[in-house]
Design a protein that fits this description.
Elements: H1 14-31, H2 40-51, H3 66-75, H4 82-95, E1 99-104, E2 109-114, H5 116-123, H6 135-138, H7 142-149, E3 153-156, E4 169-176, E5 183-191, H8 198-217, E6 228-231, E7 239-242, E8 245-248, H9 251-262, H10 269-276, H11 284-298, E9 303-304, E10 309-310, E11 314-316, H12 317-326, H13 330-336, H14 348-368, H15 371-379, H16 387-396, H17 400-413
Parallel strand pairs: 6-11
Antiparallel strand pairs: 1-2, 1-5, 3-4, 4-5, 6-7, 7-8, 9-10
Keywords: DNA-binding, Transcription, Transcription regulation
InterPro entries: GAF (IPR003018), GAF-like_dom_sf (IPR029016), OmpR/PhoB-type_DNA-bd (IPR001867), Sig_transdc_resp-reg_C-effctor (IPR016032), WH-like_DNA-bd_sf (IPR036388)
Protein name: Transcriptional regulator
């Protein structure tokens, strides 16, 4: 084939193609070999699916339901372009006896809409909102493979890894945040063999691009006039948005703004000293000098005194994660968590805040028992040595790589032979 991303080129007999693919699928699931007619993108996906422990007779698990699904969808960035998806894809899907699906970056289906009869048939294979259609859960499929590869993909009939999905054909394209480039999810069209056409793949690509353009045009949620924007997750030096300017703060100014944003009522000089400095010999003069420099940076009227306080609202990525955790939107919180709060900070109050947020999120992830979220945490720099998370991940996804890493961590954490563990500090 001239384009390996297109499932069927014009003129190909779909019946014969299905017959060849079924034989190849049986050969792979029984012997692990892939014959030449299988497209490389599909063969690679089958191998990833097998390595993840997916069986050909498996079913997608439903992980978000009722209130969890509703709250997560309401906060997801793609909710803002659902009217566009419905306008461009929804009518086409309903008229053509197809389905439109939108998934998040982990392959969870958030919306599944379209022809009523197609929805009833899809329900029987758990192609429903809240189900996880990642490759690691159900094998090769357009939405799951599109987010795994971060590129548009078409999957035809027996190219699907799970047998019960093989009567279907689908095409999906990833959607990104136009400002950051972060993968948000994918838009998918699912139906019969008629979708195995180059036009279907081009169609979802165009829809994804339209969604990204729409996201770029949509104004962010309205913030009070004069509000400050503060980014502190995963950064040693905070990024401040003030009067349309982006300013990278010093570490000390970053710490001060984090603490003042947590205390709109203000903090006295003594309270700030205790929160910022472990060394009790630091004098109030040192703190006042830092505050004077910060006041000049912020502009007039933003930093008040007696007590020290911010006179305008502050919206931070830290607060956004906390809000999502408080409402039970664990997946949304994990997606927004870019790393620990000011990881290099030694300020006592910041260190406590950093531990509290990380512990709250990791505890929620372990309780949620979502292998994709646990894997994301475990493979991040802040989670690579997190024994509890690796144990939770191994219980849900006991691949060789996960078991190996867990064994390494358990060996590292175990007391050396003949020696008692060191007492806690």
């Amino acid at each position: 084939m001239t384009d390996s991303w297109v499932a069927l080129e014009p003129g190909t007999d779909p019946v014969e193609r299905v017959r060849v693919l079924r034989r190849a699928h049986e050969a792979f699931t029984s012997a692990g070999t892939v014959s030449r007619p299988v497209r490389s993108v599909v063969a690679d996906s089958w191998r990833r699916s097998a390595r993840a422990g997916v069986g050909p007779d498996g079913t997608a698990p439903v992980e978000l339901a009722d209130g969890d699904l509703g709250s997560y969808r309401a906060e997801h960035p793609l909710a803002r372009v659902m009217p566009l998806f419905r306008e461009l894809v929804g009518t086409f899907a309903a008229d053509g006896e197809h389905l439109m699906a939108v998934c998040d970056a982990h392959g969870r289906l958030l919306w599944v809409e379209g022809h009523a009869g197609a929805r009833r048939r899809a329900d029987r294979m758990n192609f429903v909102p809240g189900a996880r259609w990642a490759e690691s859960a159900v094998g090769t499929n357009a939405p799951g493979t599109a987010v795994a590869l971060d590129r548009p993909v078409q999957v035809f009939a027996a190219e699907h890894f799970a047998r019960r999905v093989q009567p279907w054909t689908c095409a999906a394209a990833p959607v990104h945040d136009p400002r950051t480039g972060r993968l948000l999810g994918a838009v998918d069209i699912t139906g019969g063999d008629g979708l195995a056409h180059p036009h279907s793949l081009a169609f979802v690509q165009a829809v994804a691009r339209a969604a990204e353009s729409q996201l770029a045009l949509l104004a962010p949620a309205a913030a009070p006039s004069g509000a400050l924007g503060l980014t502190v997750l995963g950064r040693d030096e905070a990024l401040l948005l003030v009067d349309g300017r982006r300013v990278r703060l010093s570490r000390r100014h970053s710490e001060i703004l984090v603490l003042l944003s947590r205390h709109p009522e203000g903090l006295t000089g003594d309270e700030l000293l205790c929160a910022l400095y472990e060394d009790e010999s630091v004098t109030p003069v040192t703190l006042r000098a830092e505050l004077a420099r910060l006041r000049r940076l912020l502009g007039p009227g933003v930093l008040g005194s007696r007590p020290y306080r911010l006179t305008v609202p502050v919206e931070s990525d830290l607060a956004a994660v906390e809000r999502r955790l408080e409402t039970g939107a664990v997946t949304a919180a994990a997606t927004a968590y870019a790393g620990p709060v000011l990881p290099a900070s030694q300020a006592p109050a910041v260190a406590r805040l950093r531990r509290r947020l990380a512990d709250g999120l990791r505890t929620a992830l372990i309780a949620r028992r979502d292998p994709d979220l646990l894997a994301d945490w475990a493979r991040a720099p802040w989670g690579e040595d997190d024994l509890d998370v690796w144990r939770a991940l191994a219980a849900l996804r006991p691949t060789a790589a996960v078991r190996s890493r867990l064994a390494e961590l358990e060996a590292e954490f175990a007391a050396p032979p003949g020696r008692l563990p060191a007492p806690p500090r």
